[in-house]
Amino acid sequence: MKKLTKKKKHDLLMGYIFVSPWLIGFIAFIIFPLVTSLYLSFTRYDILTSPRWIGFQNWIRMFTQDPRFWSATKATFKYVLFEVPLRLIFAFIVALIFSMKESKILNLYRAIYYIPSLIGGSVAIAVVWRQIWGYDGIINAFLSIFGIHGINWLGDTRTAIWTLILLAVWQFGSPMLIFLAALKQVPTELYEAATIDGASFWKRLTSITLPMITPVILFNLINQMIHGFMAFTQSYIITQGGPLDSTLFYAVYMYRKAFNDFEMGYASALAWFMLALVGLFTIIIFKTSNRWVYYEAEEGV
Amino acid sequence: MKRKTLNNIIYYTFVTFLAFIMVYPALWMLSSSFKQPWEIFSDVLNLIPKEPTINNYIEGWGGFGGITFATFFKNSFILAGLNTIGTVISSTLVAYGLARIPFAGRKIIFTTVILTLMLPMQVQIVPRYILFSKLGWINTFKPLIVPAFLGGPFFIFMIMQFIRGIPKELDESAFIDGAGRFGIFYHIILPNLKPVITTATIFSFYWAWNDFMGPLVYLNSPEKYPVSVALRAFSDPSAVTNWGAVFAMSTLSLLPVLILFVFFQKYIVQGVTTSGLRG
Question: Where is coiled-coil annotated (chain A) (predicted)?
Fold first, then answer.
């Protein structure tokens, strides 16, 4: 009995020693800044002079007097609304194609398809993307072969955001790998049984494959949504938010308010609004998930 | 039989064509980096340079403002290197504590890890900047390195999953032999973690290498820039005249990531699939 409590004591001490880096980091670099910035969102603050309490002024200004805030919110929503589902659908289709056959060369292709996910977020690719869609870029050169006179894709409010959505969809490699692994775990007996019963490819897809991988879809949906809302590099480098703020992503607007205009109070309010929004969407997706996500009975741990 | 061959032809044509699209932008960048300046935009679609040159690399390496890309690459290696070392060591320790040691408060701490996992870095950047400016850390490498030594939620979670797969009997028999928690960690768990530590190292390195917003916010003198931020200054569309040099430096900036990928492909694929990494 005495030995047990000694073990417990040892565990308590060692437990906190091992997790202490995280505890320190969580308090110092996450909780403390977040709480401070909630306070700052009610102040006017330029870092050099001390913050001045202004009540709800930042929040009122955000919702009622700042058209650029609405442009940024709109552009970001549009981006997320198209980029996330398109990327996941594409990833799923390609994963399905890969799961049909097996060979050495396909393993190589699978690796190649992953490369955009690896390099797509880099400044280098953003710079290249800008040139691809530029007036004298690849796309227009390609179109001119067919006698089509291209447009300035990045300078047109109708097309600029689509170049960024395409850049995101092009990076479907990482959800593809996850889907592929999930597809391989679907028990083959299920397919065999269904084939004997005469189920068509489409029927097998919608009543076996899709339900079986819904937990993976849920995970990817939330993950991609959070990162979609916070996309920065693409908009910052490729379009600089233009033309006419049509690609002004929320993170870029927040960055400008904080680090170009030094309106730290206002930027804090912007950050907190986005945090609340992302939290809300995550909760909504989770809440609806028990309607469409299928969990196997034995997985109830 | 014939139908099967035809199917195969269609199948492989399709996957090859798609593979070509997937790598085309990178190939185009590579080929443009060896093209003569007049050739890059006049002969856009041609992937093979007519008169290959390495001039772009020589001129690009010269950088801007009297700072060469040697400095930027050195900065990137220091930042990504220290960041990786810190992340991997601290995340391994925390993961072991959370996965194996039963202690009061463990569940709550694990919940904070999972919640932080869903907390985007961009939301934290404004409050963190204020904190770091109070500490006098702005325009130093500290904001980009110190937090890494306090564990990354993603890697903690990933390593925890792996530790859970190691049989608990190993711990127990070592405990009976008189080993403490640290001894068990060092002699039993750590030697088994090689694959997951490799994966964590690779991902941590390439996220730190590609990081753009962090250094953009925290660093303001060009001699401290890593490659990502330097490249964006170097490629400012209103100032650039030499696109060949931009593409040459862009190509070089991707090289470390691609080399890692070629050598550690297996670990990367495993890492993505077991923990569902973001891309």
Answer: none
